[in-house]
Amino acid sequence: MAKNHYQVLVIGGGTAGIMVSSQLKQANSKLKIGLIEPADTHYYQPAWTLVGANAYDYEATGKPMKSLIPNGVDWIKNYAESFQPESNQITTRNGDQYTYDFLVVAPGIKIDPTLIEGLEETLGKNGVCSNYTDPKYTWEVLKNFKGGNAVFTQPTTPIKCGGAPQKIAYLSADYFRKNNLSSKTNVVFATPGTVIFGVKPIAKTLTEVLQRYNIHFKPFYAPVKIDGNNKEITFKSTHKGDKKYTVEEGNIIGEKMEGDSTIVMPFDMLHLAPPQTAPDFVKNSPLVNDAGWVSVNIETLQHTEHANIFALGDVAALPTAKTGAAIRKQAPIVVANILKLMETSTITNMKYNGYSSCPLVTGYGKMVLAEFDYNNNFIPDPKLKQMLVFDSSKEHWRLWMLKKYILPYLYWNKMMKGQNV
Question: Per the confidence metrics, is the pTM higher than 0.90?
Answer without folding.
Answer: yes
